[in-house]
Amino acid sequence: MFERIKEFFVEHSIKFLSLLCGCLIWFSVVSREEARTELELPVRVMHLQDNMALVNPLPATLYAQLEGSAINLISLRLNRSARLEINLKDMPLGYSRISSERINLVSPSIPDIKMLHHSQTNLLGVELDARIEQKIPVQPMFQVSAAPGFTLLGNPKLMPDSVYISGARSAIAKVNQVPTEETSITNLKWSNSLPIKLDLSSLNSTVSILDTSLFVQVQIEPLAHRIFSGIPVRLIGNFDRDVYSLSPSKADVEITGGREMLAKINPQDINLYIAFSRFSIEDSDELKPTVHIPHLVNNWQILPEKFRLVEIAKNDEDDDL
Q1: pLDDT for residue 26
Q2: Which CATH number applies to 131-218?
Q3: Amino acid 64: pLDDT
Q4: pLDDT value at position 72?
Q5: Distance (Å, rounded) from C-alpha 308 to C-alpha 315?
Q6: H/E element, 6
Q7: 298 within 8 A of 262, measured Cβ to Cβ
Q8: Computed over its alpha carbons, how large is the radius of gyration of the chain?
Q9: Rounded CA gap, 72 and 239, in Å?
């Protein structure tokens, strides 16, 4: 079988060579002929004044009808080096139509191409407004959690908590905040500054952010427990201190939090109190105290949980009887 195929090509090699040469000559002649085609080309804005900005983005691409030699049009379609430039020099504020004279074809690698027209000449317009810069707060959309056996001290801190944006005055007026990407940062075991990204999907593409480098600062410590015994529980407010008191007058406080943070707490830092007026307002003779601890802790537990309001004078009379 192979020998027959080989013999066939040997016998007809001259015919095949002639056919190939004919095709090359035909392609050489045809490729030099003038032709037309329509291509989708990227759009670039040129010569926009620094104190102006686009209110709405122009189309990213436009269809243009091009004329040139067939070989050049084929090459242009393959290498995609051409573009359309829209010249906005001396354009006024407000809305204006873009004339065809302001739209130019740029083809650095194949200059012998000319544009006949593009498909949106009569529909293309541009709206310009004064360019401003404004400081906008960042909206945190991330979740941070510590690994088991560790705790997060306080709330994560976003640095910076605002960014500067630049763009058309009317477009900037619609922006109240810029959110971060929704993400979860989990299993943290040490304090760190972690990079966070902004979610720019809600912004007009004509609005730019001057700096997108953001970090979230977190404080992480090993989780620990500490018990403080004999903490006084105070009765506060307007009352006769010779008549009323709390029973018991002291409590044990178990605090859960970061190990290093717990080591900084002194018993004097723990403030337990009950307002005298609460007993009548809540119509109860036993209440839980208000707890104030001026440190970042996870939670606490008071033992006992409730304290009774007692009348000292009545107790003394009962003892005399």
Answers
A1: 44
A2: 2.170.120.40
A3: 83
A4: 74
A5: 14
A6: helix 2-11
A7: no
A8: 40
A9: 99
**Residue that has been written with the tokens 């809540």 in this structure:** 282
Tell me whether the CATH fold assigned to 32-123 matches the one assigned to 131-218. yes
Residues with Cβ within 8 Å of residue 116, at least 6 apart in sequence? 36, 64, 65, 66, 67
Residue 321's pLDDT is 45
Residue ranges per domain, the chain? 1-30, 32-123, 131-218, 223-320
- Identify the CATH class of 32-123: mainly beta
DSSP 75-122: HHHHH---EEEEE-TTPPSEEEE--GGGEEEE-SS--S-EEEEETTTT
- Quick check: helix, strand or coil at residue 35? strand
Phi, psi of 266 (to 5 degrees): -100, 150
* Helix, strand, coil percent values for the chain (each to nearest 5): 20, 45, 35
Residue whose structure tokens are 């990204």: 197
Residue 311 CA neighbour count, 13 Å, CB half: 8
Question: What six digits make up the tokens of 144?
Answer: 């941070």
- The dihedral formed by the CA atoms of 284, 285, 286 and 288, expressed in degrees to the nearest 10: 60
320 torsion bin: left (phi>0), alpha (psi -120 to 50), beta (else): alpha
d(CA 10, CA 22): 19
285-321 burial: b if 16+ Cβ within 10 Å, else e = eebebebebeeebbeeebeeeebebeeeeeeeeeeee
- Kindly list the averaged pLDDT for each block of 10 residues, start to end, along the chain of length 321: 57 56 49 71 90 91 82 75 88 88 82 68 82 94 92 90 93 92 91 91 88 90 94 93 92 94 93 94 94 91 94 57 45
CATH of domain 223-320: 2.170.120.30
Q: CB count, 10 Å around CB of 234?
A: 14
